[in-house]
Amino acid sequence: MKRLHLKLxxxxxxxxxxxxxxxxxxTAPVFWDEVWGxxxxxxxxxIAALLRDRRLGRSLSNVLSRDELGFPPQNPLQKPFDDxxxxxxxxxxxxxxxxxxxxxxxxxxxxxVENLRERIEGIVAQLLEGAGTSFDVxxxxxxxxxxxxxxxxxxxxxxFRAQLRPWSSAIVKLYELGYGEIxxxxxxxxxxxxxxxxxxxxxxxxIKASDDLxxxxxxxxxxxxxxxxxxxIANCILFLNAGxxxxxxxxxxxxxxxxQNDDARDLLATEAxxxxxxxxxxxxxxxxxxxxxxxxxxFERWVLEDFEFTTxxxxxxxxxxxQEVALMYASGNRDPRKFSNPDSLELSRSENAHLTFGLGTxxxxxxxxxxLEMQVALHxxxxxxxxxxxxxxxxxxxxxxxxxxxxSLHVARI
Length: 414
Fold this sequence. Notes:
Layout: E1 2-3, H1 11-15, H2 18-27, E2 30-33, E3 38-41, H3 44-52, E4 56-57, H4 66-69, H5 79-85, H6 96-107, H7 110-114, H8 117-129, E5 134-136, H9 137-142, H10 144-154, H11 158-172, H12 181-207, H13 213-219, H14 229-259, H15 262-274, H16 280-292, E6 298-303, E7 307-310, E8 316-319, E9 324-328, H17 329-332, H18 367-384, E10 388-390, E11 410-413
Parallel strand pairs: 1-2, 3-9
Antiparallel strand pairs: 2-3, 4-6, 5-11, 6-9, 7-8, 10-11
Helix pairs in contact: 5-12, 8-10, 8-18, 10-11, 10-14, 11-12, 12-13, 12-14, 14-16, 14-18, 15-18, 16-18
C-alpha cells in the first residue's frame, strides 16, 4: 500500500479538491496516511463495498475498549460531546443501531417529511421576500432554511431558535480532523446547553403532546422498547447537526455550479418558471448537484475485525481491527469508472447512484428532507433570479474538508 500525506485542511485543497482527488484515484486509490492514522479509499466501487461491509462500523465501543485500542484516557474537556456521540444512532452498531433507527423511523416518516413541503415553501418565500436582486445566498437562504425547518419539525420555541445554528456549528467542528482544546470546550458546552433546552421540551411534551417530532419520539414504542430520555435528546441534537449541513452546503454548491454553467442555469430557470419544484427535472437535478459537489466529502469507519479487502481492481488490502478508514465520497462521486463525464454537470443524469447520503446500515435517515429542502430552495431562487452572476469572485470556504462549505455566496441579477 502506498504511503502519503493528504493535506486535507489546506485552503487550496478545500477550495478545489477535485484535481488532486483525480490524480490520487489514478495513482494511489488506496493509501495509508500516517499523519491522520487512516487508510484512504478514493474509488467509487471500493467505497460502496466498504459502506455495505458489516466488518466496518461507525463505533468500536462494542468491540474494543480504549485501553485495548491503545487510546489515551478520555479528555475531560470532551466528555459531554463523547457522551452525546455514544447515544445517537449514527455512532451505534447493531443491535443498538437497529433498535434506535427503528424507533426513530416510526416518528420521522417519509409522509411526515413530504407534508412539510408547503411549510418549507412558505419559509423559503419569507426568507427571499426582502432579499432584493443582490444578496448572499448562504446567509439569506441556505443557512437559515434547514435550521428553521428542523426547529419546526422538533417543535423548538422561537425563543431558542437563534441558538440552534451556533450550537450546531460548535458541535460539528469535532468531526473535522485536527481540532484543538478550544473546539472541545465549545462543542461540549453546546451539547450541554442544547441538551438542557431539549430536556425541558421533553418534560413539557410528556405532560402535553404537540404535533411535533419530540412529542412523537416521547410516545414511540416498538415491541415494548422506548427511547430513553438521553437517547431521545442525543438523536434530536443529531437531527439538527446532520439535518442542516448537507442542505446548507448542497444549496450553495448548487447555485455556485449553476453560476459556472450557463446552459444548466437557463434550463433549470425555465423549468422553475413553468413547472413545480417536484418535477422530474428538478428531482434529477438535485441528485446531480449532490454528486457533482459533495456537501460532506469524507466519512470514516472503524475496522471491527481483521480482514483482507479486495478492491475492484484486485488489490488486496489488509485491514486490522481498530484501524480507521477514510472514505472519500467526493472522489467516488467523480469516478469515471462509475459516472460518464463525471466532471460535467448534467442535470438530467438518470443513472446517478451517488454516495452522498451513504449506503448500507448507516444510510442517511434525513436524505428525503435534505432533497426536499434543496428542491424548494433552488426552485424559488431561480423564479426570483433566473439570470444571475456571482458578485464575490474570490470564494472562501470554511477551515475544514470533512464538512466543506462556502462562507458566503453573493449573487446579483444580470
